[in-house]
Amino acid sequence: MKVLNWIIALLGLWEFADIAALFVPNFGKIPDFLWNHIIVGFLLMIVGVWAARTSNARTTKTMNWIAAGAGVWLMISSFLLRYPVIGGGLWNDLIVGAIAFALGVWAANISPQATG
């Protein structure tokens, strides 16, 4: 279902939007968890759009599983990269990660079976 893939891409855009911090004057050193948002967001955008635009069932399924894995990583990395304060950023990562995981698994399991 292509709609799920476009939602995954939008979740990636949401996380990738942290790249704006690079252009804020006097922001200082970019923390690791912010780089993680940028990288995971970019990955989710790429795999979401790729899965939505391709007609190859095997590629779609692979991209959806990658999105699910990125969602899991986003949730786990919230604790590994040590947020300075448990607040909105942590909850954002947990919610977005859970949604990306759920949509990735759902889309991977309902996509047409690859043949050959």
Unreliable spans: none
The whole-number mean of residue pLDDT values reads 88
Q: From N to C, what is the helix and strand string?
A: HHHH
Strand content: under 5%
Number of strands: 0
Number of helices: 4
Largest sheet: none
Assign a percent range to the helix content: over 70%
| Class derived from helix and strand content | mainly alpha
Radius of gyration: 15 Å
Q: How many domains make up the coordinates?
A: 1
Query: Tell me, what's the shape?
Result: elongated
Instruction: Give me the oligomer status.
Output: single chain
Helix/strand layout:
Elements: H1 2-16, H2 32-53, H3 57-80, H4 88-110
Helix pairs in contact: 1-2, 1-4, 2-3, 3-4
Properties at a glance:
116 residues, mainly alpha, 4 helices, 72% helix
Briefly, what is this?
The chain is mainly α and 116 residues long. It has helices spanning 2-16, 32-53, 57-80, 88-110.
3D architecture notes:
This protein has one domain. By secondary structure, the chain is an all-alpha fold. Helix 3 packs antiparallel against helix 4.
